[in-house]
Amino acid sequence: MKTVIFKTENAVFEFSRADVMEHLEALIEQHTDESFTELMELIAISGDKTVLIPEEHNHFVLDLIAAGKGSITCNVCGKSYRADELESVTVGHGKSPFDVNLKKKGGVKSLFKGKQKLPAMFGGKGYRCPENHELISLIPWQT
């Protein structure tokens, strides 16, 4: 079986070449990001060889996992899992800066007390194995 692999410190992610190419084609239709086209070319020119996805494409790997594609081997516990067995986790303050829920005390009065600096925030998403080992994460935004 022709496979595409992505590695992190704690896991090895393995996907079928057909699933990866199908997902890339859909992303290329929706986005103008050239990195998807470059990744597709890398996979296409590899022939029958197993392809290792470069680190900078971890966002693409997260998309594949969210779509339920592939199998994952946790290097910590040594077990293999299907993508749908992984636990999705929120990193920091959420997947998007628009999802942040800042609850402030003080009501209207606090709005008129001089300048207040907002706290530095960051956020993203990731996945853990059923044994609670962090496998992959991405922090795409910060303030």
Written description of the protein model:
This protein is α+β, with helices and mostly antiparallel strands and 143 residues long. The protein has one domain. Helix content is 24%, strand content 29%. It has three helices and eight strands. It has helices spanning 17-30, 34-45, 58-66; strands spanning 3-7, 11-16, 51-52, 71-74, 80-82, 87-92, 122-128, 134-142. A five-stranded mixed beta sheet has the order 3-1-2-4-5. The longest helix has 14 residues, at 17-30.
Summarize the entry for a quick read.
The chain has helices at 17-30, 34-45, 58-66; strands spanning 3-7, 11-16, 51-52, 71-74, 80-82, 87-92, 122-128, 134-142. By secondary structure, it is of the alpha+beta class. Strands 3-1-2-4-5 form a 5-stranded mixed β-sheet.
Tell me the layout of helices and strands.
Elements: E1 3-7, E2 11-16, H1 17-30, H2 34-45, E3 51-52, H3 58-66, E4 71-74, E5 80-82, E6 87-92, E7 122-128, E8 134-142
Parallel strand pairs: 1-3
Antiparallel strand pairs: 1-2, 2-4, 4-5, 6-7, 7-8
Helix pairs in contact: 1-2
Give descriptors for this structure:
single chain, 143 residues, five-stranded mixed β-sheet, alpha+beta, 3 helices, globular, three-stranded antiparallel β-sheet, 24% helix
